[in-house]
Design brief:
Elements (H helix, E strand, L loop, with lengths): L2 H10 L3 H16 L40 H28 L5 H27 L12 H8 L3 H28 L5 H34 L6 H9 L12 H6 L4 H8 L5
Helix pairs in contact: 1-2, 1-3, 3-4, 4-7, 6-7, 6-8
Length: 271
């Protein structure tokens, strides 16, 4: 089994069942050293996300609002939105593995492990959607995460934007969602959603940490200061850090952010 070509086929799979089953076979072969790294390989530039045949895409502001989470419709909206993030994250992890040829094996170990985690997260959320008689693809979604992968074609920019900015933003947003859910009248579905989100939050810290490690690696390879992180974020996200007053300081520190970085993000001393 060829490493990069098989990843390309997984990335191009246009339904979740095919993508996940194909990845499972590939990952098992990879862990058993039954894949061959091609010596000459040029990755494709994908022009559309793999979920195009599953989901209708709309601008972010037109995605259904996550209101009234005690009602079935609100719960479906929330679960679908997070399932879309996790499905997009599968492809982001796979694309990060596929796109950067000639990296240390530890790099591929890390991002394939992340892809495996994101698949498990997606399946957890998909199961809850099914319990509510809904499926992934029932609601429109946005392309913001796919567009991030299109923009960042160098390792240093990819590691800065995807794990250290986008995924790290989830470390701030998820506790806010959990706090809101825990204040609501208890129900079986809300309890299941809370449990799932807590698992995802805990494991996403490790994903951001992996991004931190490989961001530092990329900076060293290019003789850059890690301060370039803020220049990259300003380049692609001029509004910067959207929740400076709600940074998850402890989680971000565990994920590799320094107190100096957190001070810049929060615009005040935080640790």
């Amino acid at each position: 089994m060829n490493f990069f070509k098989e990843l390309e086929l997984i990335l191009e799979a246009q339904d979740s069942a095919t993508k996940i089953s194909r990845f499972s076979r590939f990952y098992e072969a990879y862990k058993n050293d039954n894949v061959v790294f091609e010596t000459a390989f040029t990755p494709k530039e994908f022009t559309e996300p793999s979920y195009t045949k599953i989901c209708q895409t709309v601008p972010p502001q037109n995605v259904p609002k996550r209101s009234n989470l005690t009602a079935k419709e609100g719960q479906i909206n929330l679960l679908h939105a997070i399932a879309h993030i996790e499905y997009s994250a599968i492809d982001l992890a796979l694309d990060g593995t596929y796109r950067f040829v000639g990296m240390p094996k530890a790099y591929y170990d890390d991002w394939l492990e992340v892809a495996d985690d994101e698949i498990r997260h997606f399946l957890m959320l998909e199961k809850l959607l099914h319990e509510l008689n809904a499926v992934y693809g029932d609601l429109p979604v946005h392309d913001a995460l796919f567009e991030a992968s299109q923009k960042t074609q160098t390792l240093v920019e990819r590691m800065a934007v995807v794990p250290r900015y986008l995924e790290a933003n989830g470390l701030d947003a998820t506790p806010m969602i959990l706090k809101k859910l825990k204040k609501m009248p208890k129900s079986e579905m809300l309890s299941k959603i809370i449990i799932n989100l807590e698992v995802i939050l805990d494991e996403e810290i490790d994903h951001v940490k992996k991004g931190d490690i490989w961001f530092t690696y990329a900076c060293k390879e290019e003789n850059l200061s890690t301060d370039v992180f803020f220049q990259i974020i300003k380049k692609y996200y001029p509004r910067g850090f959207l929740r400076p007053d709600n940074l998850n300081i402890q989680a971000r520190k565990e994920a590799g952010f320094s107190c100096d970085e957190l001070k810049i993000m929060a615009k005040k001393e935080v640790c």
